[in-house]
Design brief:
678 residues; Helix Hairpins; D-amino Acid Aminotransferase, Chain A, domain 1; OB fold (Dihydrolipoamide Acetyltransferase, E2P); seven-stranded antiparallel beta sheet; 38% helix; globular; binds 2-(butylsulfanyl)adenosine
Length: 678
């Protein structure tokens, strides 16, 4: 039997160990033990606490699972108000901010700023008394917020106890609660499965999860926290700069942004803004701008506040990626393979830096799922270069007369029947190349940059060429002459000559590009490369049957079918023959495709989960540099699955199929081996 003192010591040890693992998993993204081992430690602690309730205390990691539901949140008055930031949108406004700072400080030279992302979540304040988390509150109106302690405790990256020998008497940590993009996707997938309403964006999902009276619900949602400052502090000397404060917080295991940096003067600020703007899409969380703060805390104090915002800081906002507008109607668009996409016609709205009038609604099922009616007020999102989409409707704003969308029976372009196969989400025009819309798309695809790369052949020109009956298939492009082209709208001799030159140049191509350019259904760029590499010549590819096609990595029965069907079509063979006659050519024979050297050549990898040190993109590059291939799904042909933290269903699939599973270290070892042999 263990003595009580021994039990207590074990309880303490388990807590430290578990919180250490929480920190490595949720903050550093670098777990060091398997989940099963973590669960074992957790259960041991739960059991000891159940047997010895005298040792149970509120900062135990077992207390992160949520508590009894509340009737209502109680109000909390912030010791130090939670203020807001002034916004800047233009570079000049940033310059004006910096000027005011320099004037306010009578600074001779340039000012140093701490720069960080502006997290798009909810501001909260965490109060630690003698190192224990005693209260967590929302910002509310800045002076009074709501007590959401039980909910915040379920966030595993928030320390329940500060891991220092002499914690401050009081420390208020300020920061943002948010939901990572991947957790948001997962939550919405679950909501879909349960037939419950999806959240429009990670911010709404985070807000909905944090403002739950039942903290057990919050515990099931995965929320994240980032610290960005402190409020009241008693019994500790703060370091002298904002950056040092953030380092101090990071040292106490608070999650802080990896993107934070120091910048000097306006030039430094704007360079940071641009850099983060470029990284915005690839960050694991949503941001709506960046924040600049005078780094020196004494200088911050001298600058002080105007109204409810500090003079020492400013938020430099990115163009909003979401906006509300009215849905005027729904049209359908016909794609290259006949796919019918419902498109929302919108009251023009400025979003993501441009005016948007159309947005995709993806397909019929999506329209039903999002319950979109014509006349609705909708939330439109345009992120980066992505096609604008309707993400949600605002149900309260639905007018009385708001008809539902009805999928047309006939193609608006060619009148052919629209068909939807029972197990497909996509409805298609059955007109094939008889449908001018499909013909235009096929020609545009053929000429596109990653296919035959015919510079200067844009959609307006293709519209004219097809509508006038001058071009019916890709081979017709190479028959165009000066006279015909120069007489088209918006064309002159010079532009016609340029196009003829571009067409001529495009004739020298590669087999991979040519195969991709054909626009075979289900054959993207990567598959086209695989096919070229595998078969070496077009004739060999055209002659291959389903079985031979499926010997190509990543080619399954569906893709093999599409390819075989395409080449079985007499019309397609005819166009290919004409293209060759016109002089379209590539090098053939083994080694025609970019050769894959390296000892990982021919090996297929699938990546899943978060790797501790490498991004997936970096892992992919390394594998490809060594001649390997990275595929999106696990099959019998997969050689290795590289699994990181929280692997998805690919991991289970790999186990089922008996595919070798590597962790990051295993992958690195394999790559090392490859280097050694090279
Ligand atoms: S500092 C006195 N830093 O922006 C200044 N705020 O408009 C206190 N926010 O309510 C705020 N990221 O929710 C600061 N890196 C960051 C931030 C940030 C997001 C939010 C915060 C605040 C709002 C101010």
């Amino acid at each position: 039997m263990r003595s009580l003192a021994q039990v207590e010591a074990r309880v303490r040890q388990l807590r430290e160990e578990i919180e250490g693992h929480n920190y490595r998993y949720y903050v550093l993204d670098a777990p060091s033990i398997p989940d099963a081992e973590y669960d074992r430690l957790f259960r041991e602690l739960q059991q000891l606490e159940a047997e010895h309730p005298q040792f149970l205390n509120p900062d135990s990691p077992t207390q992160r699972v949520g508590a009894q539901p509340l009737e209502a949140f109680s109000q909390v008055t912030h010791r130090v108000p939670m203020l807001s930031l002034n916004n800047a949108f233009e570079d000049e406004e940033v310059a004006a901010f910096d000027r005011r700072v320099r004037e306010g400080l009578a600074a001779a030279g340039e000012v140093d700023y701490a720069t960080e992302p502006k997290f798009d979540g909810l501001a909260i304040s965490l109060s630690y008394e003698n190192g224990i988390l005693v209260q967590g509150a929302t910002r509310g109106d800045g002076f009074t917020g709501e007590d959401v302690t039980a909910n915040l405790k379920t966030i595993k990256s928030i320390p329940l106890r500060l891991p220092v020998a002499e914690p401050p008497r009081l420390l208020e940590v300020r920061g943002e609660v948010l939901m990572l993009k991947r957790d948001f996707e997962r939550l919405n997938a679950q909501q879909r499965e349960k037939g419950e309403k999806e959240f429009a964006n990670p911010r709404n999902a985070a807000a909905g999860s944090l403002r739950q009276l039942d903290s057990r619900v919050t515990a099931e949602r995965r929320l994240t926290f980032f610290a960005y400052g402190v409020g009241a502090v008693e019994g500790a000397d703060l370091p002298a700069s904002h950056q040092a404060v953030m380092d101090w917080l990071a040292g106490m295991r608070f999650p802080v942004s990896r993107e934070r940096a120091l910048a000097r003067g306006v030039e430094g600020l704007l360079a940071y803004y641009r850099r983060i703007g470029e990284e915005r899409e690839s960050l694991p969380y949503d941001i709506d701008g960046v924040v600049y703060k005078v780094n020196d805390l004494a200088a911050q104090e001298r600058l002080g506040f105007v109204a409810r915002a500090p003079r020492f800081a400013v938020a430099h906002k990115f163009p909003a990626q979401e906006a509300m507008t009215e849905l005027l109607g729904i049209d359908v668009q016909v794609g290259r393979t006949g796919a019918i996409t419902p498109v929302a016609r919108l009251k023009p709205v400025f979003v993501g830096g441009v005016t948007v009038t159309n947005a995709t609604l993806h397909n019929e099922d999506e329209i039903r799922r999002k319950d979109v009616h014509i006349g609705d007020t909708v939330i439109v999102r345009r992120a980066g270069d992505v096609i604008p989409e309707v993400v949600a409707v605002v149900p309260e704003k639905r007018p009385i007369l708001a008809p539902e969308f009805v999928m047309p029976k006939a193609c608006p372009e060619c009148g052919s029947h629209i068909m939807r196969l029972p197990d497909e989400a996509i409805a298609r025009c059955t007109g094939g190349l008889y449908c001018p819309a499909q013909r235009k798309q096929a020609i545009l695809h053929f000429a596109s940059r990653r296919a035959m790369d015919v510079e200067g052949l844009g959609d307006k020109l293709v519209d004219q060429l097809v509508d006038k009956g001058l071009v019916n298939n890709p081979a017709d492009l190479y028959r165009l002459g000066m006279n015909t082209l120069a007489n088209l709208e918006r064309m002159a001799e010079k532009s016609a000559q340029n196009l003829l030159d571009a067409l001529e140049k495009s004739k020298r191509t590669t087999l991979a590009r040519f195969v991709y350019a054909l626009g075979i259904r289900n054959v993207g760029e990567a598959t086209a490369k695989d096919l070229a590499r595998h078969f070496g010549s077009l004739d060999a590819l055209m002659a291959a049957d389903g079985e031979r096609l499926q010997q190509v990595p990543d080619v399954g029965p569906v893709v093999a079918d599409s390819i075989a069907q395409f080449f079985a079509e007499a019309h397609n063979r005819e166009v290919i023959a004409q293209l060759r006659e016109q002089g379209v050519a590539w090098e053939e024979g083994p080694g025609a495709a970019p050769s894959a050297g390296g000892t990982l050549a021919g090996k297929t990898f699938v990546l899943t989960g978060t790797l501790p040190a490498m991004s997936r993109e970096a892992a992919k590059e390394k594998i490809e540099a060594a001649g390997g291939k990275v595929s999106g799904s696990v099959s019998k042909k997969t050689d290795y699955v590289v699994a990181g933290a929280e692997p998805g269903s690919k991991f289970t699939k790999a186990q089922e199929l008996g595919v070798t599973i590597l962790d990051e270290a295993g992958l690195l070892a394999l790559l090392e081996q490859e280097k050694g042999e090279a």
